[in-house]
């Protein structure tokens, strides 16, 4: 299957059944309100997993993919 299915894209709580999360495309999951299925879409947040040299406001302003291209020692996301 493609990367957009076979797993949930939720980063927080979800009221959507797990099996359904696994088959829905990411784009569908992201249009569901975060209060029902939290994908983090449309919400300013950092994806850092530890201390980061990037200012918090910048972390919250850029998409996850932009954070992930930074070196781990500068901005850990794994």
Quick summary:
By secondary structure, the protein is mostly helical. 29% of the residues lie in helices and 0% in strands.
Overall pLDDT confidence: 82
Largest sheet: none
| Count of beta strands | 0
- C-alpha end-to-end distance: 23 Å
Give the overall form: elongated
Query: Radius of gyration, Cα only, in angstroms?
Result: 14 Å
User: What does the oligomeric state look like here?
Assistant: single chain
Report the uncertain regions: none
Discrete helix count:
4
Percentage of residues assigned to helices: 25-40%
Structural class: mainly alpha
Verbal overview:
By secondary structure, the protein is an all-alpha fold. It is 29% helix and 0% strand. The chain has four helices and no strands. The protein has helices at 18-23, 26-31, 56-61, 64-68. The longest helix has 6 residues, at 18-23. The chain is elongated and about 35 Å long.
